[in-house]
Amino acid sequence: MHPLTYKIINFAQWRQVKKKMVGTPATPLSKVQRTLSFTPGGPKIHEEKILVTVRMRPLSRKEQAMYDLIAWDCIDEHTIVFKNPNHERTATTHAFDKVFGLECSTQKVYEEGAKDVALSALTGMNATIFAYGQTSSGKTFTMRGITENAVKDIYEHIRNHPERDFVLRVSAMEIYNETVIDLLNRESGPLRLLDDPEKGTIVEKLVEEAVKDGQHLRHLISICEAQRQVGETALNDKSSRSHQIFRLTIKSSLRESSGRVKSFIASLNLVDLAGSERASQTNADGTRLKEGSHINRSLLTLTTVIRKLSGGKRSGHVPYRDSKLTRILQSSLGGNARTAIICTMSPALSHVEQTRNTLSFATSAKEVTNNAQVNMVVADKTLVKHLQKEVARLEAELRSPEPSSSLCLKSLLEEKDLKIQRMEREMEDLKRQRDLAQSQLELERKSHKVQKGLDQCGPSCQVARCLSFPGENENESVSCKSTPVTRPRNAVGRLAMMRQSVTSTDPSMLVHEIRKLEQLQRQLGDEANRALEVLHKEVASHRIGSGETAETIANLLSEIKGMQAVSSASEEIVIGDKANLMEEINRLKSQGGTIESLEKKLENVQESIDKLVSSFASSEETPDCKTQSKKKKFLPFVMSNNANMQNIIRSPCSPLSSSRKVMDYETENKVPEKNDVVPSSVTFPRPCQATPVKSDEQGHCIPSREGTPGTQQLNSVNVKKMQRMFKNAAEENIRSIRAYVTELKERVAKLQYQKQLLVCQVLELETVAGTDEPNVIDKTPTKPWHLKFEDERKQIVMLWHLCHVSIVHRTQFYVLFRGDPADEIYMEVELKRLTWLEQHFAELGNASPALLGDEPAGSVSASIKALKQEREYLAKRVSCKLTAEEIEMLYTKWEVPPVGKQRRLQLVNKLWTDPHNMQHVQESAEIVAKLVGFCESGEHVSKEMFELNFARPSDKKTWMGWNLISNLLNL
Ligand SMILES: Nc1ncnc2c1ncn2[C@@H]1O[C@H](COP(=O)(O)OP(=O)(O)OP(=O)(O)O)[C@@H](O)[C@H]1O
């Protein structure tokens, strides 16, 4: 038979083969196996039947004491025969791979029944040797000897094969009452069995200890033996009550090899089973009975498995999983292992039935075929060397980079550099954001400070809380008066323009605006000074008015001079470069004190003028005076003709709004005052043309000395009439002064507001710029306009409510802006304005009284008060604007009690009170529109009154002149 040809043979046949092949019985098996293991082309499957031997021990002392008979006879090395002491039956023979008789040594049993299999583990084949037999049949006795011999031979083999490296590891377990225990680590408790797709059943957490040498191995074996469950039974003083599996894993590899590296790895399982027993024979009870039950059950499973396996592949299901023993030994039972079973038996006639069972098991076992194969790890030595070199090179690179690795390192460094750069950029961004946030906080703090100054002007300053965006393109400044129809423009374009104006020109425009304001103030001061001087002279020379009046005028002159001084002080404003925007803004903010001071001065002037007017009013009054006062025909100022006024924002809160006919009584929430009304339609004849006067060196009209009442006192002219005319003219002039001062105050306040808006928007745009996004036109996709409009309108309505905005203004805005795309700019501006107001009011509300002082808190309460007055005013108009039927219907609808005082006011007080209810808002707007009359004619309401002024302020602002009193005398 060719050594490379394998077929299933039994032990007897194999022995014949060995004799033929090798000729010497001592080593033929190992030679065959070694030849098989190193067969080129990879590991070969070694189909081999389990080596089954039978060992019969001598009669034990107890058996001898019982005069038991020897019932079995080994007639040759392979056959055992049941002796028939009574000759009642014919003798039966049992043939096995080897039969060891009463006097056979364990050494021989090992040599002939286990050694070859056991040493297979040294050449990469799994091997299992186990003893099977009834209790006290000598299993432990035999396995102990087998193990000792195997250990001895293994180490002898290692010594005989110095060309190979061997690594031995040991693990040991017992299965006691169907529980797996680690004999090298008993404290670990019961161990679980796991199914591994490659390794089969494995014991989880089983300790595997490295073996140092033979002595160490024997020590470990002794530990396992000591740890094993042993108990006394009737048949055995030291009966093993568990199955023990001692596992030795051997890995070996050639120390040197040309080309390929071969490693073997295999396990040798030395299994000492617990013995089958009969309770009747062992007299077991309690624990022993339970142990015996488990033992018998697992052995029964083993028997079943063996029987199944012995029947070949057609035997069907093999119940390995029915016991832990068979699960653990699965690979050894018909699997990848060489297996040798030593069946131990008692020769005693008293145990003949147990022995028969053992022999029956053995007979079945010897029919079981295993499929052992060499577990070989093959590695190409060249590849290994290459890998070793590569590892060495990498290690060297790690220690000190070499040119050969420079490319890789360079790439890594570049990548790191990029990362560092990216991180630096991110850090810069973060720092910039931090600085921006700090700046914003600082600006907001300053803004709040400035706003306190703004609020000092009281309710009238609220008039100025309107938005103005000076445009850089004069062509864009289409006059609302000249081309109202052409006003609707592309909303997006205007937004863009608005934003661009903020980013590009607003700072300089703002400074420019302030400078012009100051010029105006100076001009006002000059003109007012001259006019008041004249007035003073007139009063003095004609002895009109009281002494208090003269004093008031003197004070007024003083105030105006003071105002001039303040104005001059702020002359140093320089238009900055827009590139240095923040610096410019800060500089503008630094002017806050100046503007605040100006406002204060203006306030003082206002008070002086008020006194003056009241002084005149309380002085001699004539019907003519009253008539003229009511007609307001001849005013020294004609606001509509004042070019400066075009630059003042036209909005519902501007006194110069085209809606003045409707809105003249409210400046934001300002209650109408008759004396404030300056009908834009009224024009005043040019004084210099109407009156013979002289001009001073500046070209201003001055009264003719001949034309004064004083010079004509002795003439036939009615002096009293002249005096009345003078008084009237003076009164009108003073009123005009007041109006102009009011306008200036508003203008200052608007500039303050503009500045704050500017700061906010600059910050906002800087933030946008920080994200590298275009900052001119917001390209963010938005929702449809009609939805956006509804949202914004709801927000606006709520903000109106929160800010106590004039309900007339609310009504106008609500009626005018119905969702036309062109309304977008107005909506946005209104929303922004109101948002600012609301935030400002909230800040005031959150501030402590100590910080607030008196004035800022007053701005909120003043708005509420003004709104209350507005409602009172509207209530008065109910009767004249609505029919009795309409009124009654409204009373019913708005649930005004049928009896009670001030029912009209009750009705009006219910209007615009529920910002959440758009139906309420709609109906409120309709009623207020009727009350103020702007629903009667389209001319009364125009979007232009909400116009944003994009016009560049005129560089040359002309004050239309101070109408000298003498001019009014028409003398
Ligand atoms: N071949 C033998 N020669 C001499 N004495 C033996 C032999 N076999 C076993 N004995 C003795 O028989 C007794 C029982 O043996 P052992 O404990 O090995 O049986 P066992 O099968 O392991 O029993 P159990 O299954 O109960 O553990 C021991 O005292 C042992 O020394």
From TrEMBL:
GO MF terms held by the record: ATP binding; microtubule binding; microtubule motor activity
Limits of the Kinesin motor domain: 49-368
Superkingdom: Eukaryota
Keywords: ATP-binding, Coiled coil, Microtubule, Motor protein, Nucleotide-binding
One Pfam family this sequence matches: DUF3490
A GO cellular component entry from the record: microtubule
Residue runs in coiled coils: 377-447, 588-615
Protein residues bound to ATP: 133-140
The keyword ATP-binding appears for this protein: yes
GO BP term (any one): microtubule-based movement
Family stated for the protein in its record: Belongs to the TRAFAC class myosin-kinesin ATPase superfamily. Kinesin family. KIN-7 subfamily.
Identification of the protein by name: Kinesin-like protein
Species of provenance: Carpinus fangiana
Source lineage: Eukaryota, Viridiplantae, Streptophyta, Embryophyta, Tracheophyta
